[in-house]
Amino acid sequence: MSTTSFNELVKKLREETGVGILDCKKALQQANGDLEKAKLILREQGKELFASRTGEANQGRVEAYIHHNGRVGVLIEMDCQTDFVANSDAFREVLKDLAMHIAAAYPPPQYIKPEDVPPEVLEREKEIYRHQAEQEGKPPHVIEKIVEGKLKNFYQQVCLIKQPFVKDPTGQTTIEDILGELANKVGETIVVRRFARFEVGK
């Protein structure tokens, strides 16, 4: 298996389980690249997977953040399953990082996740991408692939969990990755419930 293929499997396993990247690598190596077997290995090791966390996330905290220039402010609610986790340093640190990210990110997020994008907005974007591809003379079977690729980029721009974390200079770590790492660390479901961003003059 090529290094690229293995890294893609590691990323997929991490996204599907929320387990740390090093544990995912080790599990996949033991499973000889078999994704389902790697999940089983992680469970046998006592790792808490997303699918195992069935409790309702009805505890949490609200964080307020004012950017250093005083022109941007953010309110964000992030939930978990217990008050103990909500008051933990790990939870509070991630919550503060998310509030700062929303204030500093450009373009700023408009939605939490892709499922939150209104159907009419999604359809409008698709039509724009299709028209652009048609103008470039792309064949029909290629156009839909182009649309799919551009939608992925669109989600990275407007959806909080798909955005690269502003404090990661490599641009490789997304907000979704950070939430997954936290969920694995505390062993609970972590949910960004809502946020509001305020900017002077807008």
SSE map:
Layout: H1 3-17, H2 21-30, H3 35-44, E1 59-66, E2 72-80, H4 83-86, H5 89-104, H6 119-135, H7 140-158, H8 175-186, E3 191-199
Antiparallel strand pairs: 1-2, 2-3
Describe this protein with a few key phrases.
Tetrahydropterin Synthase, Chain A, 8 helices, 3-stranded antiparallel β-sheet, alpha+beta, Helicase, Ruva Protein, domain 3, 202 residues, single chain, 3 domains, GTP Cyclohydrolase I, Chain A, domain 1, flat
Give the N-to-C terminal Cα separation: 51 Å
Strand content: 5-15%
* Structural class assignment: alpha+beta
What would you give as the CATH superfamily of the largest domain?
A: Elongation factor Ts, dimerisation domain
Q: What gyration radius follows from the Cα positions, in whole Å? A: 19 Å
Q: Which CATH architecture of the largest domain? A: 2-Layer Sandwich
Per the principal axes of the C-alpha atoms, what is the gross shape?
Answer: flat
Assembly type: single chain
User: What's the arrangement of strands in the largest beta sheet?
Assistant: 1-2-3
Low-pLDDT ranges: none
CATH fold annotation of the largest domain: Tetrahydropterin Synthase, Chain A
**Tally of DSSP helical segments:** 8
The topology string of helices and strands comes to HHHEEHHHHHE
**What is the mean pLDDT?**
88
Q: Can you describe this structure?
A:
The chain folds into three domains: 6-52, Helicase, Ruva Protein, domain 3; 59-112 and 159-199, Tetrahydropterin Synthase, Chain A, CATH 3.30.479.20; 118-156, GTP Cyclohydrolase I, Chain A, domain 1 (Orthogonal Bundle). The termini are far apart. It has helices at 3-17, 21-30, 35-44, 83-86, 89-104, 119-135, 140-158, 175-186; strands at 59-66, 72-80, 191-199. It is α+β, with helices and mostly antiparallel strands and 202 residues long.
